[in-house]
Amino acid sequence: MAGRADGGLPRVGVFGGTFDPFHNGHLAAAIAVLRGLRLDRLLVMVANEPWQKEGIRSVTGAEDRYALVVAGTAGVPGLVPSRIEIDRGGPSYTVDTLDELAARGPRSSYFLVVGADVVPELHTWKDQERLRGMVTLAIVARPGAAPVRAPSGWRAVEVPVEPLAVSGTDLRTFLAAGRSVDDLVPPAVMHGIRCRGLYATER
């Protein structure tokens, strides 16, 4: 990426999610965005109550999910687990989080990390018209895939990341069935899952 058009402001990424559980795909995407966009830091933002999943499925407790993110990002400079949404409580809305980050300072240039599949749903987000003026979208897309067209009014860049061929739903199913997922989650996350007795695994 040539030059900086942000006036030298700190470049901060916000990678929000349920992370239920945090896995190698999340880690690969976070590192690719951090390095590809030359961010000063990337906040791995653990949702307290993910409104998109309300009434659809039960979600593992926020403190457990946060602990797994802390474990999974340890030792990677620039990746910063964040519990802002947990501490705020209630449903987690990205625009509220950006408001809080801006209030805490310092003034920064924010990049909001989203998957290509999320882009068509941005119009459903709380205060999306205001949110789009606060961030640049960092769209995680499969290498070689057709470019993702951001909705009108959004600033956006694409970051190619080879996706992990498994979802959080698959991981929870595998773990509940006692299947090994050692090649799909960081070792420290697997240790945390076992120690906390999550996803019906054996201790």
Number of domain units = 1
Please, what is the CATH homologous superfamily? HUPs
Q: Report the portion of residues in β strands.
A: 15-25%
Give the beta-strand count: 8
- The termini sit apart by 46 Å
Major sheet attributes: 6 strands, parallel
Quaternary organisation of the protein chains? single chain
How does CATH name the architecture? Answer: 3-Layer(aba) Sandwich
CATH topology: Rossmann fold
What is the H-and-E element order? Answer: EHEEHEHEHEHEEHH
Number of helices: 7
Helix percentage: 25-40%
Strand order of the largest sheet: 4-2-1-6-7-8
Mean pLDDT: 92
Unreliable parts: none
Radius of gyration: 17 Å
Morphology: globular
CATH hierarchy class name: Alpha Beta
Structure description:
A six-stranded parallel sheet has the order 4-2-1-6-7-8. It has a two-stranded parallel sheet with strand order 3-5. The N and C termini lie far apart (46 Å). The chain has helices at 24-36, 62-73, 84-88, 94-104, 128-131, 168-176, 187-196; strands at residues 11-17, 41-46, 49-50, 79-82, 91-92, 109-115, 135-141, 155-160. Strand 1, helix 1 and strand 2 form a beta-alpha-beta unit. It is globular. By secondary structure, it is α/β, with parallel strands linked by helices. Helix 2 runs antiparallel to helix 7 (187-196). Helix content is 32%, strand content 20%. It has a single domain, classed as HUPs (Rossmann fold), CATH 3.40.50.
Structure characteristics:
Rossmann fold, alpha/beta, 7 helices, 8 strands, two-stranded parallel sheet, 6-stranded parallel β-sheet, globular
